[in-house]
Design a protein that fits this description.
- The protein folds into 2 domains: 188 residues, Rossmann fold (3-Layer(aba) Sandwich); 82 residues, Alpha-Beta Plaits (2-Layer Sandwich).
- It has 13 helices and 7 strands.
- It has 314 residues and is of the alpha/beta class.
- The two termini are 40 Å apart.
- The strands form 2 sheets. The chain has a 4-stranded parallel sheet with strand order 3-2-1-4, sandwiched between helices.
- It is globular, with a radius of gyration of 20 Å.
- The N terminus and C terminus are likely disordered.
- The longest helix has 20 residues.
């Protein structure tokens, strides 16, 4: 693939791969998009075109943004984005999802979800994400049926197979497809392709729902969610990215990227003031730094190899 690419949509009837015209990748990337990655992307585009019409479960993150872009390029107005409207997502994330969908050009729906009214979700067991995604995908399936849309899609990528993700079981059970995963596109490839396409989400840190900030077994409430959201809003206002505020009762355990650890220590007074203003009594800095799914670390330690983590696990 000369210079690195990613495509614009072809006319109806034109081969998707023939229509691909790649733009130079930003110099900040370590390497251009390789031939294998482009081939995966082209195959995904062709698969999307063959679906006829799609409803993309859209969070505004790197994965779902790339998927929506590819779907919109392949299907035009027959590719629609839908975001679950819930108190488990920060208002800023909702606003950004709207803006990103508008930049791509796709119609964007906000679909109310009621997972907090389900005690199986609110009790916050290790299957919480299964109940959350079941609620979301049932709602999206209803929207798709009402509008005559053929397929509901999610943004799971190939790397997601390696972690404990009960939401993936909900997707399978409810017929939701994962085109990035089907194309075997990894997270690093998603970011490289997103940069080549000019998507501003190419380097966006992963953002999970606010319920992921609570240890399993700690019940989820609207008040606790608002507290975490306010604490993370304070961190964003200080310019931090790629962090998490984990809720432990009166204690906020702050995870920042290792590269930001020194800045966090230097600005501790500002951080403490902002997080205490959100309602916490104490602020602790996690010396291991931010890592995705840190709540699963305790869970995994209790499991035998091949237990809940294996592909197809519940």
């Amino acid at each position: 693939m000369p210079g690195g690419s990613v495509g614009r949509p072809g006319k109806m009837g034109e081969s998707v791969s023939d229509a691909i015209v790649m733009e130079p990748l930003p110099a900040v990337l370590a390497a251009p998009v390789g031939d294998e990655t482009r081939a995966k992307y082209d195959a995904m585009r062709e698969s999307l075109a063959g679906m006829g019409s799609v409803l993309v479960a859209f969070s505004g993150g790197a994965d779902s943004a790339l998927l929506l872009k590819a779907a919109f390029d392949a299907l035009g107005a027959r590719a629609v984005a839908a975001t679950g409207l819930s108190q488990t997502y920060a208002a800023e994330e909702m606003a950004e999802a709207k803006a990103i969908a508008a930049e791509i050009g796709a119609e964007h729906l906000m679909v109310s979800t009621m997972e907090l009214t389900d005690p199986r979700y609110a009790n916050n067991s290790h299957q919480r994400c299964f109940f959350c995604k079941s609620e979301l995908y049932n709602r999206l399936n209803a929207v798709a049926q009402e509008r005559g849309i053929a397929v509901v899609l999610d943004g799971a990528n190939a790397d997601d197979r390696d972690d404990f993700r009960p939401g993936a079981r909900a997707a399978r059970e409810l017929g939701v497809r994962s085109p990035l995963q089907e194309a075997n596109l990894r997270k690093d490839e998603v970011r490289a392709l997103s940069a080549a396409l000019g998507l501003r989400t190419w380097d966006k840190p992963a953002m999970a729902c606010l319920s992921s900030r609570f240890a399993y077994g700690d019940p989820i409430t609207v008040e606790k969610l608002a507290k975490v959201a306010a604490a993370e809003r304070a961190m964003r206002a200080l310019g931090f990215r790629g962090f998490r505020v984990r809720h432990h009762g009166a204690v906020a355990r702050l995870e920042v990227p290792p590269a930001a650890m020194a800045e966090a220590v230097a600005r501790s007074a500002e951080i403490v003031a902002g997080i205490k203003a959100a309602g916490y009594g104490y602020v602790a800095l996690d010396l291991e730094g931010y890592r995705s799914g840190s709540s699963n670390e305790v869970l995994h330690a209790r499991l035998q190899p091949g237990g809940l983590r294996g592909q197809g696990a519940v």
